[in-house]
Write a structure and sequence with these properties.
The protein is mainly β. The chain has one domain. Helix content is about 10%, strand content about 50%. It has 4 helices and 14 strands. The longest helix has 13 residues. It is globular, with a radius of gyration of 18 Å. The N terminus is likely disordered.
Length: about 270
Amino acid sequence: MLTRSKLTLAVTTTLMLAGSTFVTESSAATLLAPHRAVYDVELKEASDRSGIDGMNGRIVYEFRGSACDGYTTNFRFVTQLSARGEVSLTDQRTTTFEDGKGENFRFVTKTFVNQNQDKKIEGSARVDEDGVIVALKEPESLELDLQSALFPTKHVIDMIVRAQAGETFYQQPIFDGSDGGDRVLTTTVVIGPQKLEPTEDAAEETLKGEPYRKYSVAYFDEINDPEGLPEYSIAFKMHENGIARDLEMNYGDFTLIGKVSDLEIFEAEPCEG
């Protein structure tokens, strides 16, 4: 079954890239377009081992903020899963805030199964010279010292800068408060060339003629499973205005695809700092 770590990290990382000419870290931040995107999700394929007979759902992703005031994301993923003769409904709701410098991060996630709350994770994290310090509030009060990593928006800005510098392959640790809010994952990123081909979805009219790049990102737990395969990987198209399309999320035993069914671009918030 999908977990919050797999979905939120994949989607949050996916839905905020931008850039076409060489940019610095600060100018890349100004390219992150505030928007609300809805993705219809369906099962592409599943192995016999997964036991999955069918899956469909919807992602609603909203990104707002600026480098001065910080960035807020609201993410919701509702899925209906049919597996081994049983049907379940999962509703994952996540809100995060990251300051403009990428040094402080807050997160809260609630997961509902068949309309009953199953799990809540809440906490905060900060960067110091030795790594990432995490303070969990729920499900229990706990402080953790983790390895150095980037928070989600900072991670995306780093991707932009590397793409504009001509990099096509690299690794970078990330912390997003996922799973138990207690670990860092390592991403391996592959960046493709810029393209202008059309995409058939609800965003085509708005984004027609906008160039995009193809990104592929794999996520590894190098601390707990240093020799293992990626926990999951995701491929997607990303436009210069920061909007992702044609998601393909591979979790090993099954693969999901997501297409934009609705898109709203908000006015950018002024940054006077």
